[in-house]
Design a protein that fits this description.
- Two copies of one chain form a homodimer.
- With 188 residues, chain A is mostly helical.
- Chain A is 76% helix and 0% strand.
- Chain A has nine helices and no strands.
- The longest helix of chain A has 25 residues, at 116-140.
- Chain A starts with 8 loop residues before the first helix and ends with a helix.
- The structure holds a DNA duplex (30 and 30 nucleotides).
- Chains A, B: This is TetR/AcrR family transcriptional regulator.
Chain lengths: 188, 188
DNA sequence: CTAGAATCGGAGTCGTGACTCCGATTCCCT
DNA sequence: AGGGAATCGGAGTCACGACTCCGATTCTAG
């Protein structure tokens, strides 16, 4: 219930710098990276990091949500492509390829006891809705199994992300993993 | 190059107790569980834990390898079933259902900078070989896509483990995830 | 049974990293 | 420009957890 007065210009700028730095640092050094490391990467003092994100957990959550936001936007943008089946396939492949870092963050949050469902219920709704639209259209077009629902597709996406990660650097193997997934999801 | 003299009887017993305790504690509390917690669960002093496993990392590795060992044994046991396709399917489903804990351990090891490939090269070979046999037989029988190889199947297995985990407690949803995977892996 | 070696237990050390505090600095309204 | 409020920086605090050390205990060879 804080009366969200607008932040001072420099404060807003710093907040953004921290968030961005945190994203890259978490992605490269892993979620175990120290807050100090992030502060340095952002060119900011530790105190500043903690003022904007009172907890490391809060910082992780913010980074996670920002990623979900971008994903949702991307999914929405694909919703009006002409070929629903193709749109679905493309977005799945894109989402999977882009998500290795999200996984680690999600794990860290879960390990910290954060209710991921609650988090997702907030901004994650955007992802859910966008995915819902893509999925329905693809199913109506007969391109995707009818027995799949959004939560299951999300579970598959998460799994595929890890699978791709486990496939290592081999481009062909990564593609094969995604291919298997898409085949499994397709109708018939 | 230590001259591995056989351990004293009580020492061997304690080692086993610690390993077992570590496995359950890591599974329930996560890999972040403190060494003290494990010592307590094993009914043993911290010193004892560190004598047998000089590092927390070493302990994680030992637990991981013991799991891989069991998995390999299970896979080998399934290698002479009459229907190769069915054997493959069943084992995949079993392996996936049993592995959520392994994932977390593997992640922790990776985060600690352990070369997972090196680890797998040691005992993991058992898994690789057993899986290789199952896979070849299933492919020869025309039950599984010919373009899959063992590393890819392992990546898929890892991914599926996470996918199942993400599917939550819903029994049907978990089954659906595995079903999609198996469909994707099947021939034609 | 007994000596001596191997093992155990757990208090204490040490390093690390999250988080706090307050003087210094920067911003923005008039 | 000027002053007061909002922010910043980063040294310092504190808790926690991995790992060490050594007297006490338990095993086993003879």
């Amino acid at each position: 219930m804080t009366a969200d007065r607008p932040l001072r210009a420099d404060a807003r700028r710093n907040r953004a710098k921290v968030l961005e730095a945190a994203e890259t640092v978490f992605a490269t050094r892993g979620t175990g990276a120290s807050t100090e490391e992030i502060a340095q990467a952002a060119g900011v003092g530790i105190g500043t990091v903690f003022r904007h994100f009172p907890t490391k957990e809060a910082l992780l959550e913010a980074v996670f949500l920002s990623r979900l936001d971008r994903l949702a936007a991307q999914l929405r943008a694909a919703a009006d492509q002409p070929d629903p089946g193709r749109a679905f396939r493309e977005q799945i492949a894109l989402a999977v390829d882009a998500s290795p870092a999200k996984n680690a963050i999600a794990d860290a949050l879960a390990a910290a006891g954060v209710e991921l469902d609650a988090v997702k219920a907030g901004v994650g709704t955007g992802v859910r809705d966008a995915l819902d639209l893509l999925l329905r259209r693809a199913q109506s077009a007969g391109a995707v199994r009818a027995d799949l629902d959004v939560p299951t597709v999300m579970a598959l996406l998460i799994g595929a992300s890890y699978g791709v990660e486990a496939a290592g650097d081999d481009r062909g193997r990564r593609a094969l993993v995604i291919n298997v997934l898409l085949d499994g999801m397709s109708a018939g």
